[in-house]
Amino acid sequence: MATKNIIADLNKGEKLTGTNYDIWHKKMTFLLNDQELYEHLTTNMTRPLKESTAEHCRDLEVFKAWSKKDRCVRFTLLSCMYDELIGAYEHCPIPKEIWDQLKFDFWGTSVTRLRSLVLKFEMYKREPKNSMTEHLRIMSAMIRDLKNA
Prior knowledge:
The chain is mostly helical and 149 residues long.
């Protein structure tokens, strides 16, 4: 139940857009570490070969439990990104593949991403509906993103 609440809170906040990968990556790492699921992003488990031994039965049960958690992690990753990105990653059958592909696509700084961040910062104007605190939070996040890039 706690996992669902945490995911709901993340979905209310910042979902992955592509330009906010750095902070999204950190949030997902914290979430999955807290839920003791981070290893699903770094390792893969293969189904044991068919045998009729007691050891095989234990291995199969471990694999089934792993697969169930793997599906949960995959769902979590996909549900914490904007709909436009889901289609690009839903074909990945395991969360490790999604994680690795996201890292390949968004990690590091490309010239395009840097220009995008600079343009976003230069074009930003305070919305009348936003309080000064919200305005400063947005500006601070943009400066942090530029600094990280």
